[in-house]
Amino acid sequence: MADKRRQLKVCRVIKEVVSEAILYNISDPRLTAVVSVTEVEVTPDLREAKIFLSLLADNESSRRKSFAAIKHARGHIQTLLAHELNIRFCPIISFCEDVKTRKTNETLKLIDQVAEEFRENPLIKEDELQE
């Protein structure tokens, strides 16, 4: 079992290596979304790592294709990670989509819509506000 500090260090290295691999080493034409690694969780024994990705795309289809391209490149990313980590066993990586970012964007869009509707049809007239 690794101590917490070592676990956090491995998480940080995995986040950096995977981010760079997605940016520079994957040349899949399906990868059209903007991808960022938001979080990495590693088991206490450092054998498995769950990598959370945030994908910003024009539409749902593009987002799904980009995620599929990254999952397809998992073996290549795993190899790059094994060369960078100085530990006995390289964690087996798996990718998960981080829905927090997408839900936050949807919430912000809803707030913008309500603000726009309020500007068009205010509940209180400006004359009443000044009194």
Keywords, separated by commas or semicolons:
single chain; alpha+beta; GMP Synthetase, Chain A, domain 3
Please describe what this structure looks like:
With 131 residues, the chain is of the alpha+beta class. The protein has a single domain (4-123), classed as 2-Layer Sandwich (GMP Synthetase, Chain A, domain 3), CATH 3.30.300. It is built from five helices and three strands. The protein has helices at residues 4-25, 60-72, 74-84, 99-120, 126-130, and strands at 34-42, 48-56, 92-97. It has a three-stranded mixed sheet, sandwiched between helices. The radius of gyration is 21 Å and the shape is elongated. The chain starts with a helix and ends with a helix. The mean pLDDT is 89.
State the CATH class. Alpha Beta
Weakly predicted, low-confidence segments: none
The value of Rg in angstroms is 21 Å
Q: How much is the average pLDDT?
A: 89
CATH superfamily: K homology (KH) domain
Number of domains: 1
* Major sheet characteristics: 3 strands, mixed
Quickly give the CATH architecture: 2-Layer Sandwich
Brief write-up:
The chain is α+β, with helices and mostly antiparallel strands and 131 residues long. It has a single domain (4-123), classed as K homology (KH) domain (GMP Synthetase, Chain A, domain 3, 2-Layer Sandwich). It has helices spanning 4-25, 60-72, 74-84, 99-120, 126-130, and strands at 34-42, 48-56, 92-97.
